[in-house]
Amino acid sequence: MVKIVVDLWRTGLHGVEIGIKKKEELMSKSRRFTEDTDIIGKVEIDNEEYGYIAYRTIPWNKESIFERRLAARLFSKDIEWIASIDENFGREVLLTLANDEPSPAFIITHSGQRVVYYIERIRPRFLETDAFLFTFIDRERVLHPLVIKSKRFTLGSDWKVVDMRTDKEIAEVDGKILDIGGEWEIKTKINDERLWHSLILFATTLRFYDDINERLDRIYKELRKGKTPVKLTKTDLSMFYNPRLRR
Fold first, then answer.
1. What are the φ/ψ torsions at residue 34 (nearest 5 degrees)?
2. Which among 16, 50, 177, 231 is least buried, having the fewest CB atoms inside 10 angstroms?
3. Which residues form the domain of 140?
4. DSSP element (H, E) containing 121
5. 95 within 8 A of 176, measured Cβ to Cβ
6. DSSP helix/strand/coil, 174
7. Coil, helix or strand at residue 71
8. What does the alpha-carbon distance between residue 122 and residue 104 come to, in Å, rounded to a whole number?
């Protein structure tokens, strides 16, 4: 059993990143560590230091609700980029309209991997708690259709990851409700680092979950008026690019 702890701090004021020179040093280690990147937490695996969680402040703090996005990053303890999770705005607008309720959608990319993974909120039949469809493909190119289900009626707390083929639980993501910044403990018997990284990033989105849902609810109400067009940013559009088209 692998035990992963994702400890998100209350603020970005910490010893890892304080100071202009330190920021420049971190940026020099990875091009994914941009000037607006803020480290907000750390990750431990089996009680050993593994890496850091960060997010980009500029897209998250955009004034327009149609431009605000979450873009979070997982870095090693040496600030090497491991994986990222980004809001898939086009998909979540479609899902929100289809479900008549906020439906966040994310895309996960991994260092050195061409395959991307999707995590999207779904509205399953006869299930009153939150659930996300997780498209996971292992090293042998086997598709594992997974669903991440909330264990409680309260949002953003405890979750279980279930294989839809066998209905067996393969992992769990448990949150500490009383932790001010946010701490999640992930347990799984699956020995695949890409699964670990994906669940670490999913846990990170829970820190921002209520804000994302509130924004999507506002967008839903605006779009239902039929007067507001949805214009995608270049980053949003890139998530729909044809992979076979030469560039």
1. -85, 175
2. 231
3. 2-238
4. strand 117-121
5. no
6. strand
7. strand
8. 9
In a domain, 180, yes or no: yes
pTM for the model stands at: 0.92
Distances (CA, A) of 130 to 96, 152, 160, 218, 239: 14, 9, 11, 19, 25
State the total domains in the chain: 1
In a domain, 76, yes or no: yes
In the beta sheet, which residues pair with residue 78?
Answer: none
Structural domain includes residue 78: yes
Confidence band (pLDDT; 50, 70, 90) for 180? low
Per residue in 222-247, pLDDT (tens digit) is: 999 988 889 999 999 999 988 777 66
Residue 187 is assigned to a structural domain of this protein: yes
157, 206, 196, 170: which is closest to 3 by C-alpha?
A: 196
DSSP class of 229: -
Closest CA to 108 of 135, 132, 145: 135
Partners of residue 53 on adjacent β-strands: 41, 74
